[in-house]
Amino acid sequence: MSNQIAGMLPQIMLLAGTAGIALTLVIVAVVAVVGAPRARMKKRIAAVVGTGTNLAETKGTGKDHQLSGRKKQVAAKLKEAEALSQRRRGARLRETLIHAGLTISPRRFVLIAAANGLFFVFLAWLFGVTPLLWLIVLPIGMFGVPKLVLNFLIKRRKHKFTTYFADAIDIIVRGVRSGLTVGECLNIVAREMPVPVGPEFTLVNEGIRLGMTMGDVLQRLSDRVPTPEVRFFTIVLITQQMTGGNLAETLSKLSDVLRARKRMRDKVTAMSSEAKASAAIIGSLPFILSGALAVLQPKLISLLFTTSTGNLWIGIGIAMMLVGSLVMRQMINFDF
After folding, report:
1. pTM for the full model?
2. Of 66, 185, 282, 302, which residue is least crowded by CB atoms under 10 Å?
């Protein structure tokens, strides 16, 4: 009896995995159909106003900004909003999804990650991997792959924003020098600049129309796009609004600084491209050799997947590759 149960274990696991995937997809479809209209409205309001403070609080503290100093009030409100967001469930995941430019809710992302993990387990069973390694494949598909995808989307979105941001600042500079207000220049940027700069400045304009202060909407912009360039821009506008001065000249110098940073970043990327290519070739060699052996000597390579000793060596090899990849990544990765 025990041998029969052991023999039926892969089939039971396959049925359980298939049922889990089907149930997850059904739940995602029901949630998407039932909550889509209301969720879109909530996301739009949250994107403009934010989740930390509401519009009434923003309006009610306008006089306090003038009386006790605008800078201290903005800092206090930002700390309060950050503390409140940290107490909310899924606040960090929601913030990561915003940084990646995704509009799905954290709950839906978790469901997709769970379905992805089950799909990886199904692939492992399909290729004859022993059930012991399923415990490794499941977290890789549920946590590792979604994390890599999010990091890739965040990096790509930041790069695209930084690429067009200097041109957006030049538009503001030319508009201010020609006599337009800052709000009118922001409208031009929102209308003329491509994604993601245009939509982000659209949210800034909508926040201003809803009654939020310039400092609040710019801080929201800095939270949605956490790059040094946006922080510089936020500090310049808030400081100019408090102290006055030649805004066009200040923004023009900021634009020059941003372009110089971009030139330096491109130069470093070009100089490190050889090391990155070498790391990619070295990291892909084990997979290429494994594929060649699977074609030339399938019986020999199958021992790694059908025996406990082979599974152990596969785990050791994967661990060593991960350590080596992290070391090479730290050696050739440069932050700006």
Report:
1. 0.64
2. 66
